[in-house]
Every structure is written in C-alpha cells, then in structure tokens.
Amino acid sequence: MIPILTAFEQSPDRGRGLARDMRVRWALEEVGQPYDVRLVSFTEMKEAAHRALHPFGQIPTYEEGDLALFESGAIVFHIAARHAGLLPPHSDANARARAIAWMFAALSTVEPPIVEREQASHVERDKPWHDERLPLLEDRIRGRLDELSRRLGDADWLDGGFSAGDLMMVMVLRRLEGSGLLEKYRNLSAYVARGQARPAYKRAFAAQLAVFTGKPPTA
Ligand SMILES: N[C@@H](CCC(=O)N[C@@H](CS)C(=O)NCC(=O)O)C(=O)O
Predict the structure, then answer these.
(1) Ligand 1 pocket by C-beta < 6 Å: which residues?
(2) Span from the CA of 6 to the centroid of ligand 1 (angstroms)
(3) How far is the CA of 183 from the centre of ligand 1 (A)?
(4) Of 79, 26, 80, 77, residue with least CA distance to 196
(5) Distance 56 CA to ligand 1 centre (A)
(6) Helix or strand or coil: residue 21?
(7) What is the pTM of this model?
(8) Per residue in 117-159, pLDDT tens?
(9) Which domains does the chain have, with CATH numbers?
(10) CA–centroid distance for 47 within its chain
(11) Please, which residues bridge with residue 36 across strands?
(12) Which of ligand 1's atoms lies nearest the C-alpha of 75?
C-alpha cells in the first residue's frame, strides 16, 4: 500500500523545504518507503474534503489504506514505529523511548518559540509593540538553543545513532535559517548540516523542490 501525503501546491517558502511535508518525506525516504503526493491549494485545504482528513485544514496529511493521519509528529512516529531505521529496536526499549522523547522535545519544547517568532514577523510586524516584543521572543529561542547545544555537545546525534528525534529536531532548527540565531551555535549548525547531508534528506528535499520548480527531482 503506497501512502499518500498532502503538500502545498504552492509552498510559501518557495521550495526551501520548511513546510512540514518535508519531515514526512524525509522519514519515508529514510525507511525506503515509496509514497505519492497529492498537492492542495490554500482554498482546497480549508474545504470539507480536506478537513475530513485534517480538522485544522493544514498539510501534511497521510493516508495509508483505511488509515488517515494528520500532524507531522504523529505521521513520522507512525512511519518510525512500522519500519526499521528511525528508532532503536524494541530490544533496546529504553533507547527507543528516549528517541521518542526527543521527537516530543523538538515539537513541544523547541518548536513553539521558533514558530511564535515566525508568526510575529508575519502578522504582527505593523503593531506598535512588535519591535519591543521581538527581542523577548528571540531570547526565549536562545534559551532553548543554549540548553540543546549543551546537551548535544560534541555528539553527532542527540542520543546514540540518528533517529526520528534527530529528524524532527533538525527540521525544527531549520526554521531558524536566515534569522541569525542558529549560527552562534557551532555544534547545532553542524548538527543541522549533518542531517541535511543524509542521502534520504537530499532525496526528500529534491522531491519537494521539484513541486516548486516544476522540474523533476535531481537528487
Ligand atoms: N502541528 C502541525 C502544523 C501543521 C502546519 O502548520 N502546516 C502548515 C504548513 S507547514 C499549514 O498547513 N499552513 C497553512 C494553514 O495553516 O492554513 C504539524 O506538525 O503537522
């Protein structure tokens, strides 16, 4: 059964691979699972047919037989649970649990302040308090990056070998591209680059870029 995910017909990031379908594509590439993509417009995302798959009218969604999922974290976890390659084996239950904890950490501890800053730049830019609020939001991000950087230290990945936790964390940190916030952390920048150097990442990136360029993927 080939899973189908949804992605933006026209990604606002112009193919930079920051939309959340990229996480799912990367996970599927890591485990060697072929997939199909259904592109949706902003209008279609808010229509009843798509909302039946995604109550909040967003991408990505994931359909596999009679299973329909939303939330990139839940989708990546589903893929990681059913295929080898993204989580330590069941025989190492503690390591597996820790890798899952890193997925949650990426999504519920590190991503929120990053998204808050993005939202502020997009929708609050013209507010009189925007310039005052931005440094506060950036301090919150720096706090998390300080902590994450300390924990990662000189290691390649967050806990042993590469896992879905790293996949999610790399994608979350990528959202800081262009902000100037990540560059100060040499180990975190190298960590992101290490994720981006993975062949599966490159294939996923090329596939989502091809949607934007209209040319076949070249990775
Ligand atoms: N927590 C959700 C967030 C999904 C989300 O924000 N999707 C964005 C694209 S990356 C979207 O569909 N934005 C359009 C909208 O919200 O109208 C997830 O991780 O899947």
Answers:
(1) 19-20, 45, 57-60, 71-73
(2) 11
(3) 26
(4) 26
(5) 8
(6) helix
(7) 0.97
(8) 999 988 998 999 999 999 999 999 999 999 999 999 999 999 9
(9) 4-86+200-213 (3.40.30.10), 90-198 (1.20.1050.10)
(10) 24
(11) 4
(12) 20
